[in-house]
Amino acid sequence: MTDAAATAEPPPKSSRRWILIAFPLALLLGGGGFYATWSGLLAVPEIGASRGEPAPEVSVAYVPLRELVVTVGARGNTSQLLFSADLEVDVANERAVAALTPRFIDVLNSYLRALEPEEIEHPAALVRLRAQMLRRMQIVAGEGMVRDLLIIEFVLR
C-alpha cells in the first residue's frame, strides 16, 4: 500500500497561469474600449437620434366617462365597485365618440354587473377586464374610433 501511494503521481496543477493572463488582459481591453468611446475615438450613434425626418405628430384626445358605482355579487355577499375611465381617441373623432357616452356607460354597467367578486379580486384581473371593456367600447364606437381605454379608478369596496 505504501508503494502504491508513493508511486501515484500528484494530480496536475490547475493552470492559474491562464487566470493571471486573462484577467489583466480583460481589464486592459475593457478600459481601452471605455476610453475610446468616452474620448470620441469611436463614433457611437446616439440613442433615439433622428434620421433627418421629424416624428409624426400624434393628435390624441381623451373622452372622460363618468364615475360608475356598480353593485357586484349575490344578494348575501355584495360589494361595490367604483370605476372611472377615459377613452383615448383621435382628435378628429372626439365629438363623435363623446356623443356615444351614454351607450358606453350602458355597456360598462351591464358588463361590470355580470362579474363575480372573485373575478375582480384575482391579481391579473385588471388586465383581462381592461381588454374586455376596450373591445366592447370599440364595438360600440365602430372600427378605429377608440384607441385605448385608460382606467382611472378601479376600487372594490
Question: What features would you describe in this structure?
Answer:
- The protein has 157 residues and is an alpha+beta fold.
- It folds into 2 domains: 15-46; 60-156, GTP Cyclohydrolase I, domain 2, CATH 3.30.1130.
- The chain has 6 helices and 3 strands.
- The chain has helices at residues 2-7, 17-39, 94-99, 101-113, 117-121, 125-141, and strands at 60-72, 79-90, 146-156.
- The chain has a 3-stranded antiparallel beta sheet.
- Strand 1 and strand 2 (79-90) form a beta hairpin.
- The longest helix has 23 residues, at 17-39.
- It is elongated, with a radius of gyration of 32 Å.
- The mean pLDDT is 84.
Helix content: 40-55%
Uncertain regions: pLDDT < 50 for 5+ in a row?
A: none
Major β-sheet profile: 3 strands, antiparallel
Mean residue pLDDT: 84
The succession of helices and strands, N to C, reads HHEEHHHHE
Shape by Cα distribution: elongated
What's the architecture of the largest domain in CATH terms? Answer: 2-Layer Sandwich
- The SS-based structural class is alpha+beta
* CATH level 3 topology of the largest domain: GTP Cyclohydrolase I, domain 2
The total tally of domains equals: 2
Q: What attributes does this structure have?
A:
single chain, GTP Cyclohydrolase I, domain 2, three-stranded antiparallel beta sheet, elongated, flagellar rotation, membrane, chemotaxis, Flagellar protein FliL, FliL
